[in-house]
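Attaching the record inline, Q. Sequence:
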Amino acid sequence: MADSPMPDSPIPAPRSALPPLRVLLAGPRGFCAGVDRAIRIVEEALRRHGAPVYVRHEIVHNRTVVEALERQGAVFVEEVAEVPEGAPVVFSAHGVPKSVPAEAVARGISWLDATCPLVSKVHREAERHSAAGRHILMIGHAGHPEVIGTMGQLAPGAMTLVQTAEEARTVMPDSANGLAFITQTTLSVDDTAEVVAILRSRFPDIRGPKSEDICYATTNRQAAVKAIAAESDLVIVIGSANSSNSQRLREVAERAGTRAVLLPTAVALEWSLLSGVTRLGISAGASAPELLVDQLLERLREHYALDVSERRVVEEDVVFKLPAPLA
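Structure, as predicted:
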């Protein structure tokens, strides 16, 4: 009797033979209401107008999301000048300077605004402070699209960017007519609180929002990461490297005393990272779909017997409506 053919790949070990791994899922994690709305705007524009629909900048900072929309017919560009005349264009969730829709109007291009309503709220705050004659200190990261968009709501010189606590200690704005501060929505809650405290100490009459402009989703996800970090040997944050809120989650875990890494996808996981890890925390940035978390768990199950539980610090029920042209 002929020998049986050798299998193409090793037979997976039975589950009982796999080493145990406890997984703590941070909750909430993943998509926020602003990201969900932005994606729905692009999808609805494609449904109504057909492909292609142009999108200025990545609609949200996640390549998985961008590539999925590209397969549906979205075309991503960096400037309105790249959009053919007559084609619709969507502005990303991060917001844009006022010069961008003005350029679209000048070229006769129809546009849809997918700016997160919480970012738009910051824009309106800036306009109110400027109308009252106040110079504005914007707490945020230089070069981030949200900061560029927010500072672009007013004339050059109307705002001064403050990125760190050290800059807050040394900034010398013209405060003859009063000062105000606003913040990027995706910052570290703790870092921003420190910067605001310094500014209030130096400028007691500075005006600001009743609470910092950091959005509910950013705040909730950072609190959830803090909750799992203390119980984890390693925290994996699913998110893109250019995602501010995802990077902040990694930093929050590290400041809690836990090793942390940022992964764009499950495929990017290097098994050496898990050497000596028996308790693994997992979260995902506000622009990362839950599908990526599911794929990471599937990959982990190939090597470990998982015990998965969730640490949910708050329930979220925020939903943002589509803009009027698509409602």
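The first helix runs from residue 33 to 49. The chain has ten helices and twelve strands.

More tomorrow.
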